[in-house]
Structure to design on (259 residues):
């Protein structure tokens, strides 16, 4: 991993994402780009003033996170549509990973329309790390949700890159009385997927995926969860599965979404 980009909205919700980006970039020897987008709906002179102030704020946040350590960084503040500008910046930076913070909750609007965070993760070609917790420490315990898709394999592989020393647990939720079929399908998926050599066998759970995650998270101390953006249905890479969309809105811990 050579290039990491963090999208910040300048709020306290984004600070842990910037910190996580710094820690990962230093650990992996990668370049870190921090990006903020000013809404183009603002009058031009106001947007340009905000642009200057935003860059100053981001540079201050980076300096605080990096302290005396060595890290190559780039601070970018654009004006335009958030999703389009961030995806463009990620492409220009040749980024391998996009890191974001939690979205601002809007109780009513979140029920009737797609959030900016969902739109960004859906449209991104990159794996996206959604940071919910302080990012000043290494990940210790990762949970992988196995849905037997290519996206799931990519999520586990990327998770191993950003959390090489974390313990890894896997689970596969299946319908009642379909244990043998699930084990057979898992064996086939494992044989054809590019997976870490030390990947443990999953726990097979007779439950809906949402219920299985709730139970597992209640029993374990996980700080990172890896999941595919969609399932085995071969839908477009620009679609999110229902489970993934639910987790983006209410992540139980830091969430890594890959395609």
């Amino acid at each position: 991993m050579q290039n990491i980009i963090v999208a910040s909205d300048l709020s306290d919700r984004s600070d842990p994402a910037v910190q996580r980006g710094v820690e990962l970039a230093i650990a992996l020897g990668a370049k870190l780009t921090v990006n903020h987008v000013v809404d183009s709906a603002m009058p031009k002179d106001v947007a340009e003033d905000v642009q200057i102030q935003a860059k100053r704020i981001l540079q201050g946040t980076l300096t605080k996170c990096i302290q005396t350590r060595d890290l190559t960084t780039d601070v970018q503040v654009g004006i335009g549509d958030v999703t389009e500008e961030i995806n463009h910046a990620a492409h220009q930076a040749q980024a391998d990973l996009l890191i974001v913070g939690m979205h601002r909750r809007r109780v009513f609007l979140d029920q009737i329309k797609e959030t900016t965070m969902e739109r960004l993760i859906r449209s991104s070609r990159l794996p996206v790390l959604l940071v919910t917790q302080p990012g000043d420490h290494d990940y210790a315990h990762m949970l992988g949700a196995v849905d037997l898709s290519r996206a799931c394999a990519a999520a586990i592989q990327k998770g191993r890159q950003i959390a090489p020393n974390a313990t890894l647990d896997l689970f596969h939720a299946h319908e009642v009385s379909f244990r043998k079929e699930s084990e057979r399908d898992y064996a086939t998926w494992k044989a054809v997927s590019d997976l870490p050599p030390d990947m443990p066998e999953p726990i097979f759970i007779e439950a809906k995926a949402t219920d299985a995650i709730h139970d597992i998270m209640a029993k374990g101390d996980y700080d990172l969860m890896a999941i595919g953006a969609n399932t085995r249905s071969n839908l477009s890479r620009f679609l999110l599965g229902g489970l993934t969309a639910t987790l983006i809105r209410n992540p139980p811990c830091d969430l890594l979404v890959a395609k």
Observations:
- The chain is about 40% helix and 20% strand.
